[in-house]
Structure formats: structure tokens, C-alpha cells
Amino acid sequence: MGEYKNIRKIGITVIILSGLILTLGVLAYLLVFPYPISANNVLPFFELSRILEYGRFFQRIESVFLLIWTLSGLLYLSCGLFFIVYIFSKTFKLKYYRPLIIPFTLIMFAISLIPESLMEVMYIDNKIIRSYGWLVPFGMTFVLLAIARLVKRKKRGRVKNGK
Amino acid sequence: MGSKTKRTLIVLISFIMCLSMTGCFDKREVDDLVNPIAIGFDKGQGRSIKMTLQIAIPTKVAGGGEGGGGGGGKESVSYTTVEAPSIYSGLNMINSYVSKQLNMSQIKVLVFSEELAREGVEKYINALMRGREFRPNSYVLVARGSGNAAERYLRAVEPELESNPAKYYEMVLSAYSYTGFSANTSLMNFYKNMVNEASQPLAVLADISKFEKSDDINTDNSTYREKGRDLPLEGDFKAGDMPKVGTTKSEIMGLAVFNGSKMVGEFDGEETQLQLMLEGDFGYSYVTIPDPLVEDYVVLLNIKQNRNPNRSVEIVNGKPNIKVKVFLEADILSIQSGINYESLEMVNILETYAEDFFKKGITRMLEKTARELKTDTAGFGKEMKGKFLTWDEWIDFNWIEKYPDSKFEINVDLKIRRPGLMLRSNPATGIEVGEE
């Protein structure tokens, strides 16, 4: 299934699958922590994994979960960096993207130190990025489409007039 | 850069990274930590609290185990009490004179004194929930009595069968699955119920035995008279009042009922069992009921709850009408009167009588929570919550104010499944030696 021509199918399957897993995760969390408390946790899934206890032997399992989550967080950061660098190189028609990795890492590291506390980071993430983040993929693509159409019409117009 | 130089550089960089990024800078050796297993909170002067820490001494615990564990319980813990404005300032003070650093992640039990519980424990529970080291699975207890009840209780805990007192706490507090005399009052559950508008928190009652010798044992503090009984049954006691004498002085029986974060009343052992039945958490336990046909005799049943109860709440004329049907199964353990209740003709009499016994008990307990204590301990608000579409409607409804006016309709369905190892009891034969 991993070929380019199946990209539509892959995309839809991945979106449905990840949506389902996230929904089940949030459902499990809400079933354990009812509404007013569920909104107060800084690390919801960590709290959920702290409660796991099977008899007297299987306790404090959250350490295993934390390790796996840290590794997947590392993967997420690496993928994010790759996308940024790749898009940048394609935007400016650069032949190679590898030299951009270290500068971008430093820039992102510096930007990440700007918010002064965890609460500010959460505010930026929840209120700003999640409320207005859709503007870039949805808004900008439409703007680019409109500009491309205008440019095409102008070109066609010039060709017709030229003839 | 040649490929050989590149390779050497990469190896060198990875080597340095492996050494420097392991996070060993702030490591804490297990041997450099001291692990308290229980904390007691008592009221101090003014607004301070008195914290008592019961600290496990690992070398003594291990040594006691090897030596057979006899009397090992007492020496494997040490105690320290400090008066401080808050929990963390107290821990700071203790860190200054204890040689090792305190690590709170092994706390199994949090004991509040009755005096402190009646004033309100919200600020301490919030601090304990916010802290990373405190486990949400630790049990919340309330030590009965006036003064420094929590310190008195912790100092009296001397486990006999275990050299490891942490194991003692874990086992004694999870015994509710086969006694029904306590409940799963973990910090997590306490906090959830405290801030929940659909149910109220409970804490396990703990106390020290009153009696030193078996001749002193009496049932003066039993609750059987309030229930209109002639003799006390095994659940008609609270912690500290049990008619018992033994090396283990600590007693765990009953629940402290809270309204929000303030303690307002107590449940004895029987009411605790009924509370567990209403929530569907009752495992199995021996229950004594009076004999249906013969006065002064009792019948012992092993009661199990195999199904969750059916609960429903309706609003009738602005007042909640709560209906509960509890499903129980029983095995006959003992029939003192010798009447053949095991037979198919007589078993219905016993079943009906037992159903009536539990129905009266549950009704009495729920009336107490509604009229006297005004707290919804069984969490009927959860059934009510599902009837509202939006959160604001539920908050405006104000279930906590409406619960004290509730009417209760209780039904109990009890089936006797097994008669033990005997199908019929034969009476003893002998000549009656009477007056001639």
C-alpha cells in the first residue's frame, strides 16, 4: 500500500485510524476523570498511567509508558524538523536540504526559549495555535490557488492578445 | 573532510553525547533516600499542622524477615513528628535533621485526625494531589478521637504477621473485598468525590483498641441499640470500639462521611457494607442475621454481590425519588437453631427474611445520609447527571441541595445458592438433665 498512486487511500486510512485511536484515548481519560478535574491536569495521560495497578505486583507502570512516550516525542520532533526543512528547500528551490538542518535546529531551540513558563506555552498552544492554526493549511492554500488562477488568466490573456 | 576523519569525528561526538546526555547529574541513589510509608496530620497551634512520619528502616525490615519476622514489626519503623505551617515546609524541616533525603513516593497511608477532618481537609488534599511524588493510590484514613489522634494511631501500628509495615497497610486496607468493613478510599477517589457535585468523599475510620484485657471487653459503644436490636452483630461497631484484645492494636472499621471537605459523620461496619453494596463494590463477606423463626438465635450467611445494583433517580414534585435494586447471593454457613432452612420449602423464609433485613438496613442508612448527614455518599447524582444535556443546566439544578429531600425505594433480591457441606442439620441427642 506504500506506493504514491495509493496516496489518497493511505491518507484517508491514516486519518481515520489516528482519529479513532485519539478518540478512544480521550474517552478512556474522561471515563476516569470527570469533567471539572479532567481540565485541570497538566499531563492527562501521565495521570492516567499513574493509576494503573494490578494487584500488588504491577504498580508504578507509568515509567514504562513515559519511556515510550519520550521516544515517540523524539520521533515527532524529528519528523517536524524534516518537514520544515524540506518545505523551506522546496519553496526557495534549493537543491539540497541537509545543510539547513543545523541552522533550523538552532533557530527552533532559540524560539522555544521565548515563552517564560509552562503556563505561557500551554496558553500559546491551546488558545493561539489551535484556534488560528487552521489559517495556514486551509487559508493559505486557497490564497495561493486564487493567485495561481489569476496568473494563469493573465498569461492566457497575454498569449491571446499577443496573437 | 576525508571520510576517515569524518568517521572518527562522528564516533567521538556520539561518545561525548552518550556520556553527557544521560541525565546523571541529578541522580539520587536509592540508598541515599529515606522512604516514609505513612503520614499523619494533626491540628497544631494556630494554623499550623503537626505531621507525623512513619519511616521504614530497610535494613531492619530485611533483617526481621530473615530472623523469622517475630516481633519484627515494631523495630522496622521509626517515627518523627514536626509542627509546620504546611506539608512541604514540614518536609523541609524534617530533611534538615534526617540524614537521608525524604522520598514521598512510598507513602501508602494518609491519616487525618478527626479534629482536622471536621475543620476541612481541602487545602491538604489539593497539595497532595498536586505533588509529583505522592501516589494517587494511597489510602485516606481518619483517626478517631480528640487531640493528636493521627500521631497516636500511627505510633500504635505494630504489624505482627509482617516485618514490612508497608505490606501490612496494603493488605489490611484492601481487606474490604472480603470483609466489607472499609472501602477503597484512595486519594484519587477522595479528591474526585470532593470536587464532584454528584457524590461525596469517604475516608476509612482508624483507631486504637480501647481494651487491654479480655475481662474489660464490653459493647457500650456499639451502635446496635440505635438500630433497635437486642444484640450487637459484627458490623455494629466503629474503629476503636470493637470488642477485641490483641497484640495488633490498630483497628480499621467504618467510614468517615464528608460533606465537601469537612467530616460530618461516621458509618459503622454494617453501614459500610451497605454502602459498598449500593456502589457495586461489595466482594463477599460473612453476615449474621437474626433467625427468622427462633428468637435469640442467628443464621450466618456468606453474602456475595455478583451483579451491580439497578439504580434510578426520578424527580417527582421537585424531590428526588431514588429506586435501588440490590442483587445478592448467599451461602448458608451456620444455622444455630437447627431449623432445616436448607430445604426447598424453608429456604424462601430465610431468603425473604434476609432480603427484608438488608432492605431495612439500606433504607436506614440512606435516610441517615439524607436527613442527618445531608451528603450523597452513594453517588446517586451520577444517575441524575445523565439526564441533563448541558453542563450549565446540571450546575443550576444543584443536586447537592436537593438530595436531603429524597425518598428511597429499596428492593433486595437475595438467592441462597449453597448450603455449605451439610444438607440438613440433625439435633444433638441426649437426656435433658432438668429438675426432678
UniProtKB/TrEMBL annotation, chain A:
Pfam families linked to this entry: Spore_permease (PF03845)
Keyword flag Transmembrane: yes
One cellular component term from this protein's GO annotations in UniProt: membrane
Topology versus the membrane: Multi-pass membrane protein
TM regions (residue ranges): 12-37, 64-88, 100-119, 131-151
Keyword presence, Membrane: yes
GO biological process: spore germination
Subcellular location field: Membrane
UniProt keyword terms in alphabetical order: Germination, Membrane, Transmembrane, Transmembrane helix, Transport
Family statement: Belongs to the amino acid-polyamine-organocation (APC) superfamily. Spore germination protein (SGP) (TC 2.A.3.9) family.
Protein's recorded name: Spore germination protein
UniProtKB/TrEMBL annotation, chain B:
Keywords from the UniProt entry: Germination, Lipoprotein, Membrane, Palmitate, Signal
Pfam families tied to this protein: Spore_GerAC, Spore_GerAC_N
Principal location: membrane
Spore germination GerAC-like C-terminal domain boundaries: 253-420
Gene Ontology CC terms, in alphabetical order: membrane
Similarity comment text for this entry: Belongs to the GerABKC lipoprotein family.
Entry protein name: Spore germination protein GerKC
Lineage: Bacteria, Bacillati, Bacillota, Clostridia, Eubacteriales
